[in-house]
């Protein structure tokens, strides 16, 4: 193997474009990130860098023969050739990796994400291509699991996601009210000054809600919720405090509230209304995952978030699987 390329550092989008001036620089940057801990074959998982070689292109003949390195590698364990994109969300994509990096910057730096229509204009692709790109990135975001149990003071809150009837086309209207047909129940848990967990739930029954909470919140934590009946029965595992919103109570003793997680839901709903306008229930968890990932890495610099996402792009999402 030749000398490993370096991981570039940048803080602004202009700096990123400057240190990644062309497609080869983007490929070198991604190679440095993906092979940070050493080269490996994505086909047979061989991790012996001495048995992975970079292929050369030969130009000319005799004394005039010149060898230049290509972006194709050969694994001498399985005898197969591959590029650095194989086994990632970029595999088989005709979009330049530099354009992918710009898309990553836009989706990770904007608090409310970016619409596929806007991304299409920004990087010069069709809306269909931009939509597929954003979902590939959400697929990569999903691979980052935040598994540490939440602890300390944890706020939990339920809500329903679904467009207002007056804002829907006639064929999308269901006539449902809060919690009715056409809306999806979601649950969020926020550790104060810590991480966020979100996801859809089949319903807001005590069994469904409490199973998620017990799976994500450490026993003994201080749990703050509203008065929803699904939260009744959690006192056996938590120091459970409930705020009675229906009685006009939102804060008690300064620290007993669910304002943090409610602000998260307000941000997500503004993301839907202001950026995406409509979300399919089928893909709701992907959008929740995107928002949660951004929130949990909020202390990172913009460029560091780009590199963090590039580091977790293993796996593939085909268009057929996305539309299935």
TrEMBL record:
This is IS1595 family transposase. Residues 149-296 form the ISXO2-like transposase domain. PANTHER family: DDE_TNP_IS1595 DOMAIN-CONTAINING PROTEIN (PTHR47163), SI:DKEY-17M8.2 (PTHR47163:SF2). InterPro entries: IS1016-like_transposase, Tnp_ISXO2-like, Transposase_Zn_ribbon. Signal peptide: none annotated. It comes from the Bacteria.
């Amino acid at each position: 193997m030749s000398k490993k390329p370096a991981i570039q550092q940048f803080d602004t989008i202009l700096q990123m474009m400057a240190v990644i001036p062309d497609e080869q620089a983007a490929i070198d940057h991604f190679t440095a990130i993906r092979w940070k801990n050493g080269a490996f074959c994505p086909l047979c998982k061989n991790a012996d860098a001495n048995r992975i070689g970079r292929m050369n292109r030969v130009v000319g003949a005799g004394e005039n023969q010149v060898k230049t390195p290509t972006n194709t590698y050969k694994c001498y364990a399985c005898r197969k050739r591959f590029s650095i994109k194989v086994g990632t969300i970029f595999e088989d994509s005709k979009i330049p990796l530099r354009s992918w990096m710009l898309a990553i910057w836009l989706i990770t730096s904007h608090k409310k994400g970016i619409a596929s229509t806007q991304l299409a204009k920004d990087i010069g692709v069709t809306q269909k291509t931009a939509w597929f790109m954003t979902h590939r990135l959400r697929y990569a975001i999903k691979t980052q699991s935040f598994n540490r149990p939440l602890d300390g003071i944890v706020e939990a809150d339920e809500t329903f996601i679904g467009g207002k009837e007056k804002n829907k086309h006639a064929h999308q209207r269901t006539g449902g009210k809060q919690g009715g047909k056409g809306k999806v129940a979601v649950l969020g848990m926020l550790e104060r000054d810590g991480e966020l967990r979100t996801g859809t739930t089949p319903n807001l029954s005590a069994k469904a809600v409490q199973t998620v909470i017990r799976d994500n919140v450490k026993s003994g934590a201080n749990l703050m919720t509203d008065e929803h009946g699904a939260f009744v029965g959690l006192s056996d595992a938590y120091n459970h405090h409930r705020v009675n919103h229906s009685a006009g109570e939102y804060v008690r003793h300064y620290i007993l509230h669910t304002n943090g997680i409610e602000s998260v839901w307000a941000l997500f709903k503004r993301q839907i209304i202001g950026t995406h306008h409509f979300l399919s229930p089928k893909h709701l968890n992907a959008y929740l995952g995107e928002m949660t990932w951004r929130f949990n890495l909020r202390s990172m610099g913009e460029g560091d978030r780009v590199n963090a996402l590039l580091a977790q792009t293993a796996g593939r999402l085909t268009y057929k699987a996305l539309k299935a």
